[in-house]
Amino acid sequence: MKQLLFILIGFFQLIILGCVTKFIPVIEEDQKLLVVEGLITDQPEVYSVKLSWSMPVGSKPKVMPAGGFKVQVQDDLENIYGFNETSDTGTYSSDKETFQGVVGRTYTLQINAGSDASFHYSYESIPVEMKAVPPIDTLFYEKVIINEETPTSGPVEGCQIYLNSFDPEGKCIYYRWDYSETWKFEIPYNVENQVCWITYNSAKINIKNTSVLSEDRINRYPLYFISNETDRLYVRYSILVNQYSLSQEEYTYWEQLNSITQDVGSLYDIMPSSIQGNLFCIEDPEQQVLGYFSVSAKTSSRIYIDEQFRGPVNHYKDCYGNTYATGEFIPGLNVYRWIYYVGQGYVETTFHKECADCTARGTLTKPDFWVEN
Question: From its phi and psi, is residue 272 left (phi > 0), alpha (psi between -120 and 50) or beta?
Answer without folding.
Answer: alpha
